[in-house]
Amino acid sequence: MPVSVKRSLGRATAVLAIATLALTSCAKSERDDSGSGSGGGTFVFAGSAEPVSLDPFFASDGETFRVSRQIFEGLVGTKPGTADPAPLLATSWDVSDDGLTYTFHLRDDVKFQDGTDFNADAVCFNFDRWYDMPESAQTDDLTYYYATLFRGFKTGDRSDEAIYDSCSADDATTATIALKKPFAGFVSAMSMPAFSMQSPTALKKYQDDGANNPRTTDYSTAHPVGTGPFEFESWERGKQITLDANDDYWGEKASIDKAVIVAIDDPKARADALANGEIDGYDLVGPADIKPLEDQGFQIENRDPFNVLYLGMNQKVKPLDDPKVRQAIAYALNKDEIVSASMPEGTQTAIEFVPPTVNGYTEDVPTYDYDPDKARELLKEAGAEGATIEFNYPTGVSRPYMPQPEDTFNVIRTELEAVGLKIKPTADQWDPDYLEKIQGTEDHGLHLLGWTGDYNDTDNFLGVFFGTATKEWGFSNQQLFDDLKEARGLPTVEEQTPVYEKINQEVMDYLPGVPLAHPVPSLAFSPDVKGYEPSPVQDEVWNTISLG
Amino acid sequence: MLRFVSRRLALMVPVLVGLSLLLFAWVRALPGDPARALLGERATPDGIARVNAAYGFDQPLFVQYFTYVKALLHGDFGSSIQTGRPVMDSFLERFPATIELGFAALLLAVVVGVPLGYLAARHQGRALDTAVVSGSLLGVVTPVFFLAILLKLVFADQLHWLPTAQRQNPRIEATHITNFYVLDGLMTREWDAAWDALVHLALPAIALGTIPLAIIVRITRASVAEVMHEDYVRTAESKGLTATVISRRHILRNALLPVVTTIGLQAGLLFSGAVLTETVFSFNGIGQYLFEAIGQRDYPVLQGFIICIAIVYSLINLLVDVAYGVIDPRVRAS
Questions:
Q1: pLDDT tens across B205-215, in order?
Q2: Which residue among A146, A160, B190, B205 is least enclosed by CB atoms within 10 Å?
């Protein structure tokens, strides 16, 4: 080999080696410098995806709401650590006896981040805006929550069912909302980010609800204005959203200077990024990562569960239409074993389809405690000994209510086989194959699914599952459908409570499926993060956080 | 040359039309409903019907295809079902990330691969050659995702030398002009931002560049070994030319032709590798976005991105053919 070539190659190799060394050492020092001292600093949090919009009215995803809760506030918040409504922009409210008129008394010291006043006119502007939504925006991908909770808009095919009537600004700090039909969950629903108060001035200037897609307007991508403790700074698509502390916030001002939200899809990658000092905290911790993170000194914060995981049964498939078979399956399940094998510590076993914090929860429901002998007996009575049942479960997914479906499936399968049933396992990718098969077709038998509640309303659980005949459950129980409809229409929560307790008993007697557990969703933080307050409905606002 | 380039560009038109039809059929044949993917657990039959009507998915397939092609001819690639944003906007935002990663990987492969292959050929049968040949064999057979996970485990998770995810440290305030983060850092003289972007590139680029590197080593080695024994090399040697001149002018230049072809092919293949690498390192390029779009049945994104990738792939091939002409005048003449 010619000497000169040898020399150049040698030089190149040396340069490369030095560069690599420098690269790695610098990366280390970069990270070492990146922590924040006490007071101020930047809090970097990883969610699982980017928000779909900065206008929370056009969203129903948790990642949009996570960002919204920092920028916006609603008339109503939640009591820390619970799903119960609490004053926020409204200091109090009065409800008329017929449940049709709500009078909100507003704070008088609040300004939007653009300097305009928050007052009763702003409240009415927001309510009227939602109700007047153009038909082009009345699809569930854009306005799911309004359409579902307020039943319809001023125009469109659901206008007859709409329950909103009008809003009047009695004075600067008093707004009265009139409804056409009672809606007991109204105050609770007002704590949802979708119903945040947004600046009328900014909306008029930057938002266009009639746009081809109102989630991509100037307002929804770059100019959201609320009253919250953080104001929007920038959104670099595919990289991060940056929020600045709002120095003029009316309440407890944030002690951090900036909050940055990044999207990391894979839970394990989020854990790695935390362990490597790239982020300060993240949501949706995989159960398998909890122990290793704790061992390394990271903090794990649990939310009180506001969810339910259940084993669904499609009654269109034999022998699941037989109540005795459904009862046998319930008796065959050892919920403690299922929880300990596939769910994070702190998970509660479920006895009904709502978590204990939800109105109407009662312990006085038929329970089916683990009893394999009774299960065999019931199967024998039903003539279903040795019956083959398809069992559908999802792969490649971890939901807050279903952290490790493959493991959950394996335990249940073993338990069902132990009482003599034959299980035909069918696995599908979660998104969208599994959901399509379970909710969109009758081609499934036993299946794992669940729900995380949006706000404290029983109808948000029972109504979603059993409000009408669906392909998922494959039954038509008119009595149950009617009872749920009646309960929904009662004017107050107090009146609803005994009715929902009765419905919970009715459901567990009919046993359309087996409620399994209320798994604990976890967040993880670096040791420097102080003051994060987990909420069962994810009403987590970062003005309580400090670093260092 | 100009005529050659225009002819090749014209040829791309029927290819793209055919591709659009194939893609349309393939994407619609995927099981699963985009409306359900969009609405998730909250999907109700009414809700799905409304979304399908809003996006035109309730129309007959041929109507949907012609609507799609008509828009395409006007340069409109449609909008993502998930985000509502124009597909082209998302592509242009994310494409620089993939190009930056691909370029870094290819640069690594060429800068290391060509000299290694050359050295191995010049030391055939000796220890260096054996080491290079076996090393490259290992490189070729190691799947990208495995290598990516392994590198991440060792250098990021265990040793904490390099970052595990993203393209830049979120705490660094960086100005982005072109979305090529390293270049942006250099242009704005934000050296820490440029350096940080480079550091974030290191592991994904090594993971993505290893297979092309191994292939380039092998092709270079074989090609140099063959050319070394050509008559004209012997003639050059007998003419008394210096070893440097012989290597540069006679050996490398002739041996590089198949190497350039390989580089061109590998550049195209990098896109498929990028899907895996970007997913492992949460590197927000088109690969990761495409991967998500498949799960979400985001038809417009799938169609738009793949067509854009096809255009880029065709252009890279064209560049390779032009590069032939530069390296080998005989190709230019023909």
A1: 999 999 889 99
A2: A160
